[in-house]
Amino acid sequence: MFDTFLNGEFYRSAEAAVSVDDRGFLFGDGVYEVIRFYNGSFFELEPHLSRLARSAQKISLLLPYSLQKIEKVCYELLGKSKIKNGKLYMQITRGAAPRTHQFPVQAEPTIMMKVSAVNEDELKEKQKGATAITLPDDRWNHCDIKSINLLPNILAKQTARSQGYHEAIFVHSEKITEGASSNVFAVLHGKLVTAPASNRILAGITRSVVIELARAAGIEVEERFLAKDELYQASELFITSTIDEIIPILSIDENPLNGATVGRITGNLQELFQKKLSTLNKYS
Ligand SMILES: Cc1ncc(COP(=O)(O)O)c(C=O)c1O
């Protein structure tokens, strides 16, 4: 079973190899995307590919293929893998070249994709509710770029997980930005509040879908930074991501929210999200 695509060829992942001189390996000089597929169809493929193009452009990385060709390869890989429900990880780096900080004069970008199955039972369990803690957001000023440089996110997630929490929620200048690998939504006075798309967050594709579903359902959405204190006053809190979809946060920094149960608006959005997913057709 081929589950990996690397620079034009399909492989079993254990047989695919990248040069030790690759700038992704040496510097984290690259960008990535994670895309879910359900019942053999990609979810929101076009917005993911547009974001990939924006991330690449922001680090002056020329994509090795057109977006049309990348889309075609995504479907080819899905077909070869025979996996019906899973995720596709895609990474593009500036390629292999002698190690210098400045861009190499000559290097072919490395493009890699790998598909893997998602454990739906584990996901459903998480979607019943999880916990989070706040941690300082010590990332750079370009969080809108989906860069493979993820050290601050990794360290924050590890701190959270090692203390038994599912997610770390970042606080920058007393304002909530996002989670270590998710966007954050709060319900305050019946309105849904989430950080605006800016250089301080990665504007999630799931975030956009949730905002659209909420507005269509008549729920008012405010895109503004929440003050840290507002988190504790929220009647509901949830996080969104491609991998986790919508996860209710039942306690933040050990403060229970909504009596540590899934709130009405969160539950409603989870249902609407599943309904949207159920309309995905099998590709032919
Ligand atoms: C920092 C960060 N914010 C937000 C998200 C959610 O983005 P999406 O919904 O596109 O997966 C992710 C996903 O990995 C992330 O890493």
Strand and helix map with partners:
Elements: E1 4-6, E2 9-11, H1 23-27, E3 30-38, E4 41-42, H2 45-58, H3 67-81, E5 86-93, E6 110-117, H4 120-126, E7 130-136, H5 151-162, E8 167-172, E9 175-179, E10 183-188, E11 191-194, H6 205-216, E12 221-223, E13 226-227, H7 228-233, E14 236-241, E15 245-252, E16 255-256, H8 264-278
Parallel strand pairs: 7-8, 7-15, 11-12
Antiparallel strand pairs: 1-2, 1-6, 3-4, 3-5, 5-6, 8-9, 9-13, 10-11, 10-14, 14-15, 15-16
The protein binds pyridoxal-5'-phosphate.
What does this 3D model show about the protein?
This protein has 284 residues and is an alpha+beta fold. It has two domains: 115 residues, D-amino Acid Aminotransferase, Chain A, domain 1, CATH 3.30.470; 156 residues, Alpha-Beta Barrel (D-amino Acid Aminotransferase, Chain A, domain 2). It is 30% helix and 29% strand. The strands form two sheets. Strands 7, 8, 9, 10, 11, 12, 13, 14, 15 and 16 form a ten-stranded mixed beta sheet that branches. Strands 2-1-6-5-3-4 form a six-stranded antiparallel beta sheet. The radius of gyration is 19 Å and the shape is globular. The protein starts with a strand and ends in a 6-residue tail after the last helix. The mean pLDDT is 97. The site of pyridoxal-5'-phosphate (PLP) has 14 residues, from helix 6 and strand 14.
